[in-house]
Amino acid sequence: MRLKKYTDYSLRVLVYVGSKENGELSSIKEISDSFGISQNHLSKIVHELSKLGLIDTIRGRGGGMRLAVEPVDINVGHVVRNMEDDFTLVEWLGKSEHDCGLNTGYALTHIFNDALTLFLQELDKYSLHDVLMNTVEVNSVMEIGE
């Protein structure tokens, strides 16, 4: 499974804005320069994060953005769920056996749905505070290609 760049950039914006001291404002230009993301794309992301109540935006000269809530109240799973528009892991997931051409498709559908549920539950364990304080404990390390 791969999250969209939109979700990745949303999390980056939250980390960048959340890392500022004492409510210091961040600008779209700053974030754009820092991560090499287009300002137009960031504007859409900031608008969405603002609609979710996660950041406050201040317009005009000297404006910018800051977190609207404490980092501990920003759940990583919540952000991912709201930024992703499609959690379909496999194209045929959710189709009938006849549509996917597999007589075991129904069992695989449940396996993938369970895996997605566990993935999101794992993200739900963490807040932006955990990320900013680098307090995320790694329970296991898996080498790709083992």
From TrEMBL:
PROSITE patterns (UniProt xref): HTH_RRF2_2
InterPro entries: Tscrpt_reg_Rrf2, WH-like_DNA-bd_sf, WH_DNA-bd_sf
Keyword DNA-binding: yes
Cofactor(s) essential for the protein: [2Fe-2S] cluster
Assigned keywords, A-Z: DNA-binding
SUPFAM superfamilies, per database record: Winged helix' DNA-binding domain
Keyword DNA-binding set for record: yes
One GO MF term attached to the UniProt entry: DNA binding
Signal peptide: none
One GO CC term, this protein: cytosol
Pfam (any one): Rrf2
UniProt protein name: HTH-type transcriptional regulator NsrR
Originating species: Pontibacillus marinus BH030004 = DSM 16465
Lineage: Bacteria, Bacillati, Bacillota, Bacilli, Bacillales
